[in-house]
Amino acid sequence: xxxxxxxxxxxxxxxxxxxxxxxxxxxxxxxxxxxxxxxxxxxxxxxxxxxxxxxxxxxxxxxxxxxxxxxxxxxxxxxxxxxxxxxxxxxxxxxxxxxxxxxxxxxxxxxxxxxxxxxxxxxxxxxxxxxxxxxxxxxxxxxxxxxxxxxxxxxxxxxxxxxxxxxxxxxxxxxxxxxxxxxxxxxxxxxxxxxxxxxxxxxxxxxxxxxxxxxxxxxxxxxxxxxxxxxxxxxxxxxxxxxxxxxxxxxxxxxxxxxxxxxxxxxxxxxxxxxxxxxxxxxxxxxxxxxxxxxxxxxxxxxxxxxxxxxxxxxxxxxxxxxxxxx
Amino acid sequence: xxxxxxxxxxxxxxxxxxxxxxxxxxxxxxxxxxxxxxxxxxxxxxxxxxxxxxxxxxxxxxxxxxxxxxxxxxxxxxxxxxxxxxxxxxxxxxxxxxxxxxxxxxxxxxxxxxxxxxxxxxxxxxxxxxxxxxxxxxxxxxxxxxxxxxxxxxxxxxxxxxxxxxxxxxxxxxxxxxxxxxxxxxxxxxxxxxxxxxxxxxxxxxxxxxxxxxxxxxxxxxxxxxxxxxxxxxxxxxxxxxxxxxxxxxxxxxxxxxxxxxxxxxxxxxxxxxxxxxxxxxxxxxxxxxxxxxxxxxxxxxxxxxxxxxxxxxxxxxxxxxxx
Amino acid sequence: xxxxxxxxxxxxxxxxxxxxxxxxxxxxxxxxxxxxxxxxxxxxxxxxxxxxxxxxxxxxxxxxxxxxxxxxxxxxxxxxxxxxxxxxxxxxxxxxxxxxxxxxxxxxxxxxxxxxxxxxxxxxxxxxxxxxxxxxxxxxxxxxxxxxxxxxxxxxxxxxxxxxxxxxxxxxxxxxxxxxxxxxxxxxxxxxxxxxxxxxxxxxxxxxxxxxxxxxxxxxxxxxxxxxxxxxxxxxxxxxxxxxxxxxxxxxxxxxxxxxxxxxxxxxxxxxxxxxxxxxxxxxxxxxxxxxxxxxxxxxxxxxxxxxxx
Lengths: 327, 324, 310
Known about the structure:
The structure holds three protein chains of three kinds.
Chain A: H1 2-28, H2 34-41, H3 47-57, H4 65-78, H5 92-127, H6 132-146, H7 149-163, H8 183-220, H9 223-230, H10 235-272, H11 278-287, H12 291-319, H13 321-324
Chain B: E1 3-14, E2 17-29, E3 34-38, H1 45-52, E4 60-69, E5 72-73, H2 79-85, E6 90-93, H3 97-100, H4 107-117, H5 123-137, H6 153-165, E7 171-175, H7 183-200, E8 203-208, H8 211-214, E9 220-225, E10 228-234, H9 235-240, H10 245-251, E11 301-304, E12 307-310
Parallel strand pairs in B: 3-8, 3-9, 6-7, 7-8
Antiparallel strand pairs in B: 1-2, 1-4, 4-5, 9-10, 10-12, 11-12
Chain C: E1 6-7, E2 10-11, H1 15-33, H2 36-53, H3 55-58, H4 89-125, H5 127-142, H6 145-155, H7 161-188, H8 191-198, H9 203-214, H10 216-239, H11 250-259, H12 269-296
Antiparallel strand pairs in C: 1-2
Helix pairs in contact in C: 2-4, 2-12, 4-5, 4-7, 4-10, 4-12, 5-7, 6-7, 7-10, 8-9, 10-11, 10-12, 11-12
């Protein structure tokens, strides 16, 4: 319990760090870049909104740094994230909330799938060490995982979209189709999701396979595995209940670390496929110098990562009794 | 005779070469007997133990010989029959219980695994059995709910012994089960093991590097050096009249509490690397009685009274009665 | 306990420390030489290094010169065709090697240096300083790196080379720092360090001459990992246009290719070849890392199975 509280505390500190970085960055850069951005807003917004942005970005304002900081924090927590330049006059919150479900669906599903499948393949690979399965797959995946996500995405488009015409090249659904809860819409969505989904899956699965395999190999040399064999337990039981359950623990703990890569991959894949999720919006914001949108998306991504790490931590506590005994 | 080991050979294959960890080992064991295997670290005794139980893993390989247990050759037995034999007739106690117990399962879960694997799915009946074996080793049944890391070292070791007794096996092999304990706990564990053995009637093969530990408890003794058995016979015999120079060296290396003060003698030199064994008798470079032939001829097994010795010193002293 | 030797009244370094460095280095070298992965990985890097140093020997065109007809297909004059701007793709790919390799190595070195400094200091200083440094490390570890990179790069419009490297280092040091800290912690309590302190060596000298040499394998592994990270992350940044778009690098090529819909308009090589380059370079570092791992941890080495005779 204490462990959980400590972890949550840490995440709050990290969130605070992210907020503060967001706050300080435009002010630290030479020639506050927000100035240029503000110029584009002038004439399109009323004075109150303009003043709010000035405070948020430290432009042109008489308020002290500290009071700017607290106003900024207050706005963040109350959902006043500003107006988006790219999608003017929509508010940042509306843009973000529209993009969020696409990303959660695409990235969430494929990441979990990659973890589960990768772990399984890693277990089987380690168990069948030296045989074909193990000597062929891991090296393939080391090389594959070294390729940038977006490159595989581009290749996939080239092969399956342009040359073979099996799947559409971009978007989450065909333009002009109205979203509805019927099969034609859903199948359209699924069709558009296959290539980006597969790209993420193929690139991220390699890491899981490798680490799980190496952990398993280490675990398999432990005495309690030999004991399990001595007890006459079936191979499958030994592999899963004794070996895998122990080998997966460092993997789960490392899950949080790997999320950084997952996020980066997701952003680029969304970009390549013009998939209207959080990553795509972030890049749009960058190109358009739409700092309010950019900042908020960065915070959202950070929160998502923190939540995922917290959940992974929780799962580890469930599986490892040693983590539960507070020391 | 419940166990007969014939010409057993085990090799370790590595990029640096092949090491013969167990070289043509022969011995037998009767029901209810307590046999100790003694030797320095790296002499092959643990490897021998695991090869008997068919628990070797790469790079160790069993390359020759047979292990006849209750009439069946474990080496050639098919996987399913081997699994049935495991634990039910032959169980294992390892050196470090902390490493031998699965850290993420409760003690009870690990006991249940054994029962289920051997077709006993009635958990209520099993619970009674669990309480019984724990009582035998002096542990409260409440610890069934504990995890390995929550128990003390001595308790963990006794839990392991309790687990070994679950299916009332005929033979329990133990790999230095007391090495991880302090001297006092060692002795109390040994006493307990001996009591259980006498009560329940199982045979024991006990591996240790500490020859003094087993002097009171063992019926038979096997001394190993560099992968070979150099002396094999009743414990009393060997203690009172050690034949092989190595055994003599081992026995003179620790003091007796009551005897006169004697200067302690160690054995000069160190054991050879198993990939580069000396020709002839592996002990000859360190042997005070080495003869010329010792560096070229590998000594055959020679009986000296009830004891079997691998030493050229005895070759001409007795008539060979034929190998058995 | 290791005994402290004295030669002529001056305390000598304990033998086993020397032996660690001498014996393990030659064993290590031998093992690395026989690893297929290491050979392939270093082979690729050697080729790339050559291309970086002497691009003019292989490619005869100026990569940025827009002198040719745009969007040509492959031919003997243009092995990979031309871009939409009339530049020779082959020349761009060859010259681009230099930028990508330099970024990988420089960013890798700087990242590792920072990781070593922070990780080892945290371990050695202990107490409050350790607490602070560790928390900072953990924060940077959890903060999503790529979005952070994007945000920083977005604010600093045309920084180009230096910004990319700075951003890579700022986001990449935390992983290595954590690993190095735990290894340094485990070394910290060993007896030979106590012996060094008793000899009167100063703290920083102890760190440099006693602790660091025992951590070389982890430091090299950190560098290789940082290099892989640098190659991929730099490519990603350049691809979305946040690197300086005027440099000849593979990532930038991809950026221009994507902006000109190379895949759809029939110049796919414009995108494929630089992408392959990135993958190969990253893969080479990754293979070296894997080989390194195997050499250090014999349990991971390839197993050769033989038939068991019974």
